[in-house]
Amino acid sequence: MPDGSARLHPRTARLRPRTALAALAAMSLLGGAVLTGCDSGPGETTKGAAAGEARRPAPAPPVWNRSPDSVAAVGDSITRGFDACSVLADCPEASWATGTDREVRSLAVRLLGASGAQAHSWNHARTGARIAELPEQMARAAEEGPDLVTVMIGANDACRDSVRAMTPVADFRRSFETSMRALRKKAPKAQVYVSSVPDLKRLWSTGRGNPLGKQIWKLGICKSMLADADDVGPAAVARRAAVRDRVVAYNRVLHEVCAKDARCRDDGGAVFDYRFTGKQLSQWDWFHPGRDGQARLAEIAYRTVTATRPPA
């Protein structure tokens, strides 16, 4: 290979001007890349190629399918429709995610129609579940081969007998990351919708105005937040604030982990921010969403799933 100076051969120098110009043009066209590589010095040709590769645009992320053909749900009592139809009982037909109740119009019904929701949606949520159980639920959901998996989890991690018993944030993150890996292992192309955890303190504030609801709370529902519902002393205020702060931290984890997966969307905090009224809470426990509240959750999910862009 000629070196970078590349002097012309004496015979070439004696060519007529027109011939010499043609020869130089041919060398430029046919050997320019080689000469450039040599001029760069030993070992720099590979570096130049690597730099060229680095300048190539990154592959486009997967396009979000706004019309999935099947839905699998994982999570806790809210997704099971607990207390939406009868006292202290699951009511999966009223589930915001996969239910068939006409008043609720679940996410599955809105996406697939009534018959499609019955044939192509599955509810793997469990009342009382905490996030440590989510990897197992995700694995079962993945076996259905769904286009979309809905996730609503975390309320029971904050709703413990005491503030000290709440799930640590680091453990919450670890479990959610493990859950996403469990899904991706069996369903790499499934899309995921992640709901934020509701604002439990706001639910306490709304429900405490109902005497019947407060009697049900005494049975042990979410003691960390609902115990001594009328106590507004410093200790009770601090306890409820600690629970709310933990929910905020859980929602941050859900958002951050979801953001790392190109096929995952969270609701941008829409469920946490939603102001449930007494009309939208269960008439039996004044804490879980009733049919109307389940319908509001379905609306938020449908809006997020079918949006052109994810929430900001």
Task: Describe the fold and architecture.
The chain is an alpha/beta fold and 312 residues long. The chain is built from 13 helices and five strands. The chain has helices spanning 10-13, 17-39, 44-54, 107-119, 134-143, 155-158, 169-186, 200-207, 211-217, 223-226, 234-259, 270-273, 291-306; strands spanning 71-75, 121-123, 148-152, 191-194, 264-266. A five-stranded parallel β-sheet has the order 2-1-3-4-5, sandwiched between helices. Helix 4 (107-119) links the parallel strand 1 and strand 2. Helix 5 runs parallel beside helix 7 and helix 7 packs parallel to helix 11 (234-259). The longest helix has 26 residues, at 234-259. It is globular, with a radius of gyration of 30 Å. Residues 1-49 have low confidence and may be disordered.
Strand content: 5-15%
H/E element sequence: HHHEHEHEHHEHHHHEHH
Radius of gyration: 30 Å
Mean pLDDT: 86
Q: Which structural class is indicated by helix and strand composition?
A: alpha/beta
Largest sheet: 5 strands, parallel
> pLDDT below 50 for ≥5 consecutive residues: which ranges?
1-49
Strand ordering within the main sheet: 2-1-3-4-5
The overall strand count is: 5
Q: Can you count the helices?
A: 13
The rounded distance between the terminal residues' Cα atoms is 56 Å
**Shape estimate:** globular
Report the helical percentage: 40-55%
Describe, in short, the structure shown.
The protein has helices at residues 10-13, 17-39, 44-54, 107-119, 134-143, 155-158, 169-186, 200-207, 211-217, 223-226, 234-259, 270-273, 291-306; strands at residues 71-75, 121-123, 148-152, 191-194, 264-266. The protein has 312 residues and is of the alpha/beta class. Helix 4 links the parallel strand 1 and strand 2 (121-123).
